[in-house]
Amino acid sequence: MLDVGCGTGRWSEALAGRGSRVWGVDESAEMVELARERGVNAKQASAEALPFKEGWFERALLVLVVHVLDRPRAFDELRRVLAADGRIAIATFAATQFDNHYLSPYFPSLPEIDRARFPTGETLEEDLGAAGISTLLLLDEEEYTEGLARAERELPERVETEQHLLVVAADVRPRM
């Protein structure tokens, strides 16, 4: 597992605690040092120039970092260091985060500024697709070819759809 933009190593530590072998990378030397203090294998490096061999990782995690990356270069690097059947998980803010943020009433231009900084789901899909990273690449070639032909024949120019997300939040309380 590769944790890109690992920061203090919180996610890397949690994944390692669940049995994953994890490397974290972050551009900040201070963040890498904090991650190492947690016991995380961490290197100072940019997402656009990862210091790992081709196909080295099975999975990559990017939490609240895609908005500061040169996404085309970073996604090309991820494709390089991930195995052929590798997977990427990206967590970033949705647009609704900005309108509902507790500071927005105090700083009215903040939502607009953040909307410009953080990519939309559509933008991420385009950027990933341009790098050749897609769930569709996990399909066998016959299913992909048949599905693409059918979609081109049957789908209208614009498709309305819904997405359903599972989000879990929990507070840790002392044991009694």
Characterise the protein shown here.
By secondary structure, this protein is an alpha/beta fold. It is built from seven helices and five strands; from the N terminus they run βαβαββαβαααα. A five-stranded parallel sheet has the order 3-2-1-4-5. α1 links the parallel β1 and β2. The protein is flat. The two termini are about 35 Å apart. About 5% of the residues have low confidence.
Layout of helices and strands, plus pairs?
Layout: E1 2-4, H1 10-17, E2 23-26, H2 29-37, E3 41-44, E4 57-63, H3 71-81, E5 82-91, H4 95-100, H5 110-117, H6 121-130, H7 141-154
Parallel strand pairs: 1-2, 1-4, 2-3, 4-5
The span between the termini is 35 Å
- The tally of helices reads 7
- Estimated share of beta-strand residues: 15-25%
* Gyration radius over CA: 19 Å
Instruction: List segments where confidence is low: pLDDT < 50 over at least 5 consecutive residues.
Output: 164-172
The strands making up the biggest β-sheet line up spatially as: 3-2-1-4-5
Major sheet description? 5 strands, parallel
Mean pLDDT: 87
How much helical structure, as a percent, in the residues? 25-40%
Shape: flat
Q: SSE order in H/E notation?
A: EHEHEEHEHHHH
